[in-house]
Specification:
Oligomer: heterodimer
Helix content of chain A: 25-40%
Largest interface: A-B, 52 and 27 residues
Strand order of the largest sheet of chain A: 2-1-6-3-4-5
Distance between the termini of chain A: 26 Å
Number of helices of chain A: 26
Order of helices and strands of chain B: EEHHEEE
Shape of chain A: globular
Number of strands of chain B: 5
CATH topology of the largest domain in chain A: Aldehyde Ferredoxin Oxidoreductase Protein, subunit A, domain 3
Number of domains of chain A: 3
Mean pLDDT of chain B: 89
Distance between the termini of chain B: 39 Å
């Protein structure tokens, strides 16, 4: 056996309260890596076609990463894999925190859970022993308190990690997620609802197994070099959050671009984390405003100054890092003086949450964003989907499709933070009008009527992340063409420019200085190649357990391919790894095809694609030929023009 | 000698070739890079420049193969 992986999965059946181990052959790992890749390999072969995502035959996998625990850094990500109840096709969600290492320490690369418990249950997994524990006392409890209680109940058992759902997952919200480490979320694809449908409140993991690698010395050397560079990446104290809009404006107005040095972006991640984008992306159009129909004209400096990231880190009392992370983009904030928040501390809100409940709703009340962030973390709901859904509700209200009688008295005006908070609470609890919106935008259109579809910002059923494809068209390709649509963490043009993939992969187009930004708006072969490269490397990343922000620091610094070979002893070339990524991506797509998803149905809707284009702001006049771009992407993925892969080729 | 430069994202940097290299005299310094890029030296505390990913001074002499990187920002989250 090559090193790095544990060589087996734990298979649990909740209906029968049974478990078994299943060995996985070396060639499967070499073909699909671990993580999401191994997950799609197993689920494609073991979920029957046409399975009800909320039924007992659906499988829910908690997958670690091939490089997790090997001495590599930035490799502590874990994935949840399942058939998505939100899109009806392939579902996965990726997360940081501390769960991934415990999956492997228990002796597995993944834990696959099928069946359905009659009563609420949690699993206590200690190495290869599984105990089915009553979770009645936890059912109805929020995700953070549940995790705390689970860890306390198992406090004598050493280093332990847990993943749980909140009330939203219990109530089968299709936009609910799974939490670990008190608010780090695998949020997308409706994975929390699948867990809730199985009456599975949580899993608690405690392992003692050793994780081996083929060449620990080389892994240490790669890690050391990377850590040293990250350590030196420090922003001067003079650089303040108030300067970020200027940076955003200046980068947004450039007509050309070139290769970027990813290591230089790490300094901002270290200082602020993802919230550096709060104000930087408003002047350049990256941040969607007013349900994707507005711009800086609607959310001007008078508004966005309130979400200056400095104002958020003023509350930061310590940095937070996921397992094996050396950047530490997270933070723990002091919220003692915010009465609406239970407890004294909370995770720093991420950019996605701030924008989804800030500019997207024309809300500039910073304290409310802390409250909302805590509600989402405790309730167990995806902030991206929830924010998009409330933006949709507001636009329906403002245009008279729903009224005060429909909303139970809520006045859903832009920026009305009191109503926004009440609606979110009702969505999490599936109460009142919240029940209409608890399953996301697409489901809500079915209740409100066909006219509301014009305001429904989703892609194939999933709400898009807080980055505008009209600013970065390659991002739009991934929103539309990825088997889990609407995902902002697959790739984008700017990410491509920073990864330096062309230095390693023979077919990845090289980015040179002076590349014309306008060309990114054309459905060219080069765009298709770049998006295909993004999609393939993302699957290698997720199979490895690697962090997106490590990838964004560039492969010239975070040496993924060298890491993988040192871990496994495979001696594969980057081109071979990209072929592996393509294989994983093709199987994710094949899962969708088998389940009846038509890839072309996932094209961006008119507003998201800029048809007609915005009249004001930095994206004025911008539109993207998404259908043609998708076809180019499919071509370079090796699929037919309708996005159908031949997984036997 | 050739030095690789990653300029600030808001600089046009016409003096760099397609692969971001610039030709400077032997013994040239970081200050020369600022000058050639047209970045006022008074901005140096703000634009954050490193050589081979280590903190540097304006008068640090450069050598062939060095990488000079300036501050840049990435949308994401």
């Amino acid at each position: 056996m090559a090193k790095g992986y544990m060589g087996k999965l734990l298979i649990v059946n909740l209906s029968e309260r049974s478990f078994r181990e299943e060995s996985i052959s070396d060639d499967v790992y070499q073909s699909y890596l671990s993580g999401t890749g191994l997950g799609v390999y197993y689920l494609y072969n073991n979920i029957p076609q046409g399975t009800n995502p909320m039924g007992p035959d659906n499988l829910l996998g908690f997958m670690s990463g091939l490089m997790t625990g090997t001495g590599s850094v930035m490799t502590g990500r874990w994935s949840v894999v399942t058939k998505s109840p939100l899109t009806g096709g392939w579902g996965d969600a990726n997360c940081g925190g501390n769960l991934s290492i415990q999956i492997k320490k228990c002796g597995y690369d993944g834990i696959i859970i099928g069946g359905k418990s009659l009563k609420p249950v949690y699993l206590y997994i200690q190495d290869s022993t599984v105990t089915f524990c009553d979770a009645s006392h936890l059912w109805g409890m929020d995700a953070i308190d549940s995790e705390r209680l689970l860890l306390e109940e198992n406090k004598n058992k050493g280093n332990t990690a847990a993943a749980v759902i909140g009330p939203a997952g219990e109530k089968l919200s299709l936009i609910s997620g799974i939490s670990n480490d008190f608010g780090r979320y695998a949020a997308r694809s409706g994975v929390g609802a699948v867990m809730g449908s199985k009456h599975l409140k949580g899993i608690v993991l405690k392992g003692t197994k050793k994780i081996e690698s083929n060449d620990p010395k080389s892994i240490r050397a790669i890690s050391k070099e990377y850590i040293e560079k990250i350590k030196n990446a420090k922003l001067p104290g003079m650089v303040k959050g108030s300067m970020l809009p200027i940076m955003g404006h200046l980068t947004g107005t450039q007509k050309t671009y070139g290769p970027m040095d990813g290591m230089m972006t790490a300094s901002a991640m270290k200082k602020w984390g993802t919230i550096a984008n709060n104000t930087m992306g408003i002047p350049n159009g990256d941040n969607p405003v007013k349900n994707w129909g507005g711009s800086i004209r609607d959310y001007s400096w008078r508004y966005y100054r309130s979400i200056n990231p400095d104002k958020i880190i003023n509350r930061e009392i310590k940095k937070y890092s996921c397992y094996s992370c050396v950047i530490g983009c997270g933070g723990i904030c002091d919220v003692k003086n915010i009465d609406a928040i239970k407890g004294d501390e909370t995770h720093k809100p991420e950019y996605e949450t701030v924008n989804a409940f800030g500019p997207l709703l024309l809300n500039n009340n910073l304290e409310s964003l802390f409250v909302i962030n805590d509600m989402l973390n405790r309730g167990g709901m995806d902030s991206i989907s929830a924010g998009n859904t409330i933006a949709f509700a507001i636009e329906c209200y403002e245009n008279g499709l729903i009224d005060k009688a429909y909303t139970g008295g809520l006045e859903l005006h832009w920026g009305n933070v009191e109503s926004i908070i009440v609606l979110l609470r009702q969505m999490i609890a599936r109460e009142g009008v919240g029940a209409i919106f608890a399953d996301g935008v697409k489901k809500a259109t079915e209740a409100i009527g066909v006219e509301s579809q014009a305001y429904a910002m989703h892609v194939g059923g999933q709400e898009p992340g807080m980055h505008d494809a009209r600013m970065d068209p390659i991002l739009g390709i991934h929103y539309a063409a990825d088997p889990t649509p609407g995902r902002h963490t697959i790739g984008g043009g700017m990410y491509y420019n920073i990864m330096h993939l062309w230095d390693y992969v023979s077919w990845a187009p090289k980015v040179t200085k002076g590349s014309n930004k306008a060309d990114d708006y054309l459905a060219s072969d080069e765009i298709g190649l770049k998006s295909a490269a993004n999609a393939c490397i993302k699957q290698v990343l997720d199979g490895s357990g690697g962090c997106f922000f490590a990838m964004a620091s560039g492969f010239n610094h975070w040496r993924l391919f060298d890491y993988l070979n040192a871990t496994t002893g495979w001696h594969m070339t980057p081109d071979q790894y990209m072929k592996t990524g393509r294989r994983i991506q093709s199987l994710r797509q094949a899962f969708n095809i088998r389940e009846g998803v038509n890839p072309m149905d996932n094209a961006l809707n008119n507003r998201l694609a800029g048809n007609p284009p915005l009249k004001e702001g930095p994206l004025a006049g911008k539109s993207i030929p998404i259908g043609e771009m998708m076809k180019k992407h499919f071509k370079y993925m090796g699929w037919d023009e309708n996005g159908i892969p031949d997984i036997n080729s | 000698m050739k030095i690789k430069v990653y300029p600030p994202t808001f600089i046009k940097a016409d003096v760099l070739d397609m692969d971001n290299y610039i030709e400077i005299d032997e013994g040239g310094t970081v200050r020369q890079i600022y000058d050639r890029l047209g970045i006022p030296v008074v901005l140096s505390p703000l634009v954050y420049c490193v050589v081979n990913y280590k903190k540097t001074k304006l008068d640090t002499p450069l050598k062939k193969g060095d990488i000079v990187s300036f501050i840049s920002f990435l949308s994401g989250g």
